[in-house]
Each structure stands twice: as C-alpha cells, then as structure tokens.
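**Sequence, structure tokens**
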Amino acid sequence: MKTRILGKYGLALALSFMAGAAFASGSDSLGSGLSGEQARYNAGKAVYAQKLACPGCILSGKMLDKMQAQQIITNTDLTSRLSDDERAALATYLKLRFKL
C-alpha cells in the first residue's frame, strides 16, 4: 500500500520535472519584432493592397506579375500619391516578391 502511494507521488514528481524541461527546450521567441527588410516588405504589401489594388484604386482588379511589378517600380505616375517611405516599402515588397 505504501509502495503504491510512494509510486504515485514519485511519478507525479518526475512528471513535474519533465514538464519543466519540456518548457525550457526549443527556441526563444520572446522578441517577435521584425528586421528592417521584413518590416519594409510587410509595409510594402500593405501599401500595395490598400493604396494601389483596393477597389477604386488605379490597379484594382489587375493581376500583379513580374512585368507589372517592374512597371510600378519605374513608373512614378503610378506611385505619385505615395510618400517616400511608402514608395520605398512598396519597392522592397515588389523586389523581394518577384526577385527583381
């Protein structure tokens, strides 16, 4: 009887130590901040979706491909309403997405 009780407590104690080890393993991802290029990529994606491809926007309903992306980067008429930061973020997004 005592052996069973001690066995249950021993098992509970062992499992609690193993759970601590499981939580301690793996990579640490507390700082989920994005690097500069990743942040610009995400910002450029948002700029494209919200300011160029939204309903009623200049590129609404058009498929974005490599040729279209190159045209957006080089044609300042398409991006004239964007700020310099938005234009830079958009260029980063398009260059990375289409490997320009």
User: Anything to note?
Assistant: The chain has four helices and no strands. The mean pLDDT is 82. The radius of gyration is 26 Å. Residues 6 and 12 are 10 Å apart (CA to CA).
